[in-house]
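Make up an example, fold above all:
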Amino acid sequence: MTLQISLPQNLESMVQNGIASGLYSNASELVSEALECFFSENELTAHNFTDLREDIEKRHKNLKNGEEKWVDGDAFFARMEQKLS
């Protein structure tokens, strides 16, 4: 398939730099790899989003019934920095 696209100047420069570096032989090769990476990362993100949502719901339930409690993030990191010093 042949597809023509317009890129902003900064992206066009990235494509030209990728070709000039020798990593890619042409713009099609670079854009194809970039799109494959983009879509594979988004699929993974969608899968992880479901797991994250389930974990949040579980933790919210545990917070409400007292099985877990909130931690003061600033205090936690202060203690960790103190231990590392």
The two ends are 59 Å apart (CA to CA). The chain is about 75% helix and 0% strand.
